[in-house]
Amino acid sequence: MKVIITKNYEELSKAAANEMANIIKNNPKAILGLATGGSPIGMYKELIRMNKDGELDFSDITTVNLDEYVGLSGDHNQSYRYFMNENLFNHININKEKTFVPNGLAENIEEECKNYDAKIAELGGTDVQLLGIGNNGHIAFNEPDSSLVAGTHLTKLTQDTIEANARFFESIDMVPTTALTMGLGGIMKSKKIIVIASGAGKAEAVKEMVSGKINTNMPASMLQMHRDVVVIVDEAAAALLNK
Ligand code: PGA
After folding, report:
1. pTM, rounded to two decimals
2. Got the DSSP string for 1-60?
């Protein structure tokens, strides 16, 4: 794993945007695996700026998101489809038909998961997968557990995650308790992985991801087995790393 430590969130966002921009410039038809949450918002703002300034073209780019809450429609303001539209897609020259997010309202969840993996395979896999990391070490909604799932699947959110995500909802009772998420197999198939984390609350998980024993109770530790991972963290999130 290559670890880049930045001074603060702003620099982290710029460093991550530069990594992503290089991939897009090298391959204007790249398939980008994208993520939601607080961590990537600054990076998306920087990508929007680059697009507006004419430095970056998204017209041939395809995107595939990691996960979606079950039970929220794409126009619910806490759905991940809505998040992606609001924080990125509505502000860049991307063709929305080429942006994929699992359908949290699918009647047949099993089929939706199978189709999602088939879609990614048909696209030839992702050239890069962006990831945040949960305080508990989850990646996407692959929560700490005694076993992990390879493909896209239905998962129950842990209490930790529900509490962490409650900040985005009117009350904790409104946080969905299940989600569709890409599995560890899908994530590990990406040609490159970029992980971003900011703030002291992530320091323990970042340490375990980078140098802890590989185990399913720390899903991010699995990333040690991938050959091209760039971890971009600010000083607070890097506080427990051996320098
Ligand atoms: P955050 O979430 O970016 O909102 O901190 C990261 C995650 O839970 O994967």
Report:
1. 0.97
2. -EEEEESSHHHHHHHHHHHHHHHHHH-TT-EEEE--SSTTHHHHHHHHHHHHTTS---TT
